[in-house]
Amino acid sequence: MSTNTPLLRVRDLRTQFHTDQGVALAVDGVSFDLKAGKTLALVGESGCGKSVTAMSILRLIPSPPGKIAGGTIEFEGRDLLGASDQDLRKVRGNDISMIFQEPMTSMNPVFRVGNQLTDVIRLHRGSSKADARREAIALLAQVGIPAPEERIDDYPHQMSGGMLQRIMIAMALSCQPKVLIADEPTTALDVTIQAQILELLKSLQVSKGLAILLITHDLGVVEEVSDEVAVMYAGKIIEYSARTSSLLETPRHPYTQGLYASLPSMQRGRTRLHTIPGSVPAATQFPSGCRFHPRCPHALPVCKETAPPWTPLENGSGVACWLHAEAKP
Amino acid sequence: MTPLLEVKDLRMHFPVRKGVFSRVCGAVRAVDGVSFSIEAGKTLSLVGESGSGKTTTGRALLRLIEPTGGQVLFAGQDVTKAGKEDLRVLRKQMQIIFQDPFGSLNPRMTVFNMLSEILQVHRIAPPTEWRGRVEELLRLVGLPQEAADRYPHEFSGGQRQRVGIARALAVEPKLIVADEPVSALDVSIQAQILNLLEELQERLGLAYLFIGHDLSVVRHISDEVAVMYLGKIVEIGPKERVFENPTHPYTRALLSAAPMAGAGPKHQRIVLQGDVPSPIAPPPGCAFHPRCPDARPECRELGPTLQKVSEGHRAACLVHAPEHQ
Lengths: 329, 325
What we know:
The complex is a heterodimer. By secondary structure, chain A is an alpha/beta fold. Chain A is built from twelve helices and twelve strands. The mean pLDDT of chain A is 88. Chain B has a single domain (5-93, 171-324), classed as 3-Layer(aba) Sandwich (Rossmann fold). At the A-B interface, helix 8, helix 9 and helix 11 of A face helix 6, helix 7 and helix 9 of B.
């Protein structure tokens, strides 16, 4: 497959939650493509809908209260939203795998890590117990667990957070998926361990041609590992850059600009930080028009009334902001 | 000039118990001989990874947990030896703000109740003045007056952190231990709280012991930085010196491992092998030697002490900061 055809195509995804306060539009019209061998970062602050987007791809949204209300998700041309549960189970793990933020809570504490890993291999591939164990040891070695023949019989509590995240990665990769969804994979880890895990993901991506959807709030991590980046705010992608470095050089959306400006950057001395006034609105009561307008320093009258259209920019990038729109009403 | 806070050889060991009779069979040396000082109106940051003992240091020096050994002097007065009554007076001058703005506020109390309780307990103001004092505190931390009659669940994370700061300021302290105050917040909110902390420092002349793990935040807010590893300070000095001329291999690795947005071209990253060892059985010699890229045979036997690198800048490393320097 050429690198230009996307492996995963998400169009106009809408995921909603019914709450006592009304309907929460957690994800509201999100579209993106994920290409083989590339890393797309989905970045935003808490509550912007980035994790819900990731969960929606594998239909892991608890329902009720959640519901995928619209849109399409295609993996290699196959529709995932309309697929039967049985078909979807074949996609999960085999084609698309996921790793989560908290490796400590994603493992079952009463089973040995080896059992949890071999279960996956036996279930998906029907290997024998002995084969699965051999395979599991090889996987552990691949993700850099020292003395894998011994550590395979440890319980999760005997391992550190970094090691558990390696095991989660081994588990996710055990069936050679084409897409890995990594939801804040290093947020719970210390920086030196984070560096190890990011290096591991990069090297696995090169050796296996994985497509990675990286969900994160850390702009530093985005810059280190991603090829492309989509910035989310209040359930929508407000800016997409086909080259991560160009987002950093010229952020177009006022929100993206504000995010970068409010980082205590390593270069600046002790001056006041830039701040974005106010806070992220609740998903049950998004403002009208552009959802960023109450906090935006450049808001125009039209921003209050009408949501901005998607404006394509050079080499496939784009932004949803009236300031960049060609035709203003 | 005597520093506002002086910490000398602070130690905090937690016993490890085992068996039916809970026999003590070892100790976690969470803080193992830490010394530093902070001058009035200045900020010292403690950085390190989880388990390095930075939070325990902050709590032990306030005697929220009783330290095992060492001395803490606040404006010349010995905190570690203070009796109950003296400690109550001392605590008015030393306050703490916590990392988790969701867990550190009583959900059943309004902001007014929370703040006026402090004014009452410390006999700072008579009941007639409480309303006015609470309003003043809210103004100071940038919250609206209506906030006084609200409960914690009605606030966002950033606003709750402001309430936590107002609570610390209610007793008019001189020193605030800020334990990861922005780690749970989003970047745009983090910037608001960091600015607030700096404004308050300038207006009220506060000294901060800032505990953090995000190096870009630490670099922004500190005057001095101390890097901790397994209960010990491995490098300490003015922030420019530590960040521009990191001497200890751990500091170097920490600086190179942190992903920085806008750091320009990709720098060479030092990826450390392995994990932080258990503080129950720290490695002999220099505790960092099993992960150290520059370790020599002697590092396995000799524990290094802090040696001068340049004015005010010290590091504990046999290789990069030898004693004769």
